[in-house]
Each structure stands twice: as structure tokens, then as C-alpha cells.
Sequence to fold (375 residues):
Amino acid sequence: MLKNKIYKYLSVEILKNFVTVLFTFTVIAWTVRSVNFLDLMIQDGYSASIYFKYSLLNIFTIITRFVPLAFLLAIIMSISKFERQQELLILWSVGINKIKITNVLLLIGFFIAFLQTILSVFVNPYALNESRSLLRDTESIQINSVLKYGDFSDNFKGVTFYIDEKNTNNELINIFIKDTNGNFNSIIKENETAKNTTIFAEKGNVLGNKLILFDGTIQSLTKNNVINNLNFQKTELSLINLATRTILQPKIQETSTKELLSCFIPSILGDCVFEKNKKIVIETLSRRIGMPLYIPLISIIASFLLLYKSGKKYNFLKKYIIFGVSFVILVSAEILLKYSGFSLTNFSLYFFLPLMLMLILYSVLVKKMILEKFQ
Fold:
């Protein structure tokens, strides 16, 4: 009973440190990324609510990326704390087996790996796809935030705006619009043959998702290179259907794991929609399923901190050595991801390598702990 309480105490302390470190890293990284997302409001004209929802949905990506590093720091910080406060010495004095402590750390590692697998396989792609759908389905583009004054604005595909100034009555003065995508062909006669359209207006104003123009000229260039001019006193341009430069189609990282697996077992899961990008598909699957396997490996490496050597210099430096080795393994795992999609051998090796290292290092660790017991 006492031993179970001790194991529970150690587990809770490690998990508390893990949550604290993960939360700290996530908040910092999410704040930086949210600043980058400000372009959604400033350039693409999305509302503040869309911006915040999009930013919040992207937080799961950050959490998933920081889980291995946060666990590494948490387990080293916890063991160092136990050692500094003589708690480990008390445990060894009452007969607690170091191998059992190692097994507890390993179980925590598998638990964290399971959580990361759930996040990366199910939660993360769903949240990213929802964030993309949020931009794709919204119609609340804030036109006033897109149109700039005294500068060219090309936030919409195929359309360039230039507005000289804005007066005290919120009227736009001296407006220039260049349409090379046929977005405004409906306002000219040759709507089927126009290559591009240029619109000049002395003034205008924004009403909802419409741009009302006064006293101007519409100049169109047909496919036969004939220029036609049309003067107007008032005309309306609907901006609701203009496409922004924001990528709206789901990326591979935003696709469900089931759809990605269909590239390898189409007869069961359906057709593969990324047939030409199988390399990236394999890399993404390796990250979602293979990367969590490196977390239990980190717990085994960190368990070497439980060993004791007579050399004071080694005991002082061992946590830095263990951290350095573990950090190199995590960085190597990220690098190997880039090569996992090159071949089936690389893909298999990415999964086999942490399992093999776990078996070898665990055997070495147990042997050292048994020998230490009889010294």
C-alpha cells in the first residue's frame, strides 16, 4: 500500500511538471503564431471573431509539437528535484526497487505517448480542417479592412485596388481597379470575350459587401485586343464572391488519418486523393503514429539518472548529459521524418528504431541497476 502511494506521488509530480511546461511552451508559441495570423484581419478582411476561432483551433498543432520536449524537461526536472530533496535516497533506504521506479517512468511515457497519438491522429487534423472550413465557409469579409488608402491592394486574386484617399464623409476618392480574372465581366457588354477590365472612378463608398462607384469609366480589353470604354455616373460592384489569397483547400496535414491511410489500402478505406503526394502522406503518417514512440524511449534514457556513481563530477553533469542525449534523439526523430517518405524501408525504420533502442537501453539499464544493488 505504501509503495503504491509512493508510485502515485512520483507519477503526479511528473505529470504536474509536464502540464506546466507544456502549458508554458504552448502559450508562448501560440501568442507568436497568433500575431502571424493577424493578416487574416488586416489583409484578407476576416472579422475578429473568425480570427480568434481560427487561432484557437490551431493551438492543438502547437500542443502536439511540444509534447515530447515538455515530457523530457518534466521528467528530468522531477528526478532532479527528488534527488535534490533527498527523496530518492529515502526511497532506496526503505527498499524501493529502482527497476520498479523505472517501470513507473516507462508507464508514464507510454501514457503520454498515447495522449499524443490521440491528439495527432484524431484531434489535430480535425481541428485544422475545421479552421480551414471556417475561412472557406465564412462570408463576413470586412471590405473596409482590405481596401488600403494611398497604396495598391492585391488581397483578392486577379484584382488590384488603388484608392487615393478617404475624406471626412467616409467617401473614397480617386479609385482605380484592375481586374485580370474576369470578376467584373458582368458589368460590361463583352462579358464573354473580355481579357481584363480597368475601372476608374472619381469617388465611391462601401456598403456592406458592395462598392458603389460614381462618375467613372470602365475600360475593357477583349480577346481580339480591342479596347472598349464605357462611362457611368453610378455603378455597383459586388465584392462578396472575390477570392482572397488565403489558401482555402485542405492541406495534407489537415486531412483525416483515415483518408491518408486510403492511399495504401484503397480497397478498404476508399480512393486516395493524394496519389501524387504519397511522399508527404507517408511523412505525415510517420509524424502522427511514429513520433509518439520516441516518448517512452525518452523515459528510459531519463531513468539513467537513477543510477549513482562515486564520481561527483559525473553526478553533477549527468542530468545535462541525459538531457543532451535525449534532445539529440528528438531532433534526429524530426530530421528522419523528412526521409521516411522516400521508401518503405525508411518508413519501417522510423517505427522500428525507437522500439529497438527501447529494448537495448532498457536491458542495459536493468543490468546496471542489478549490478549496482550488489555493489
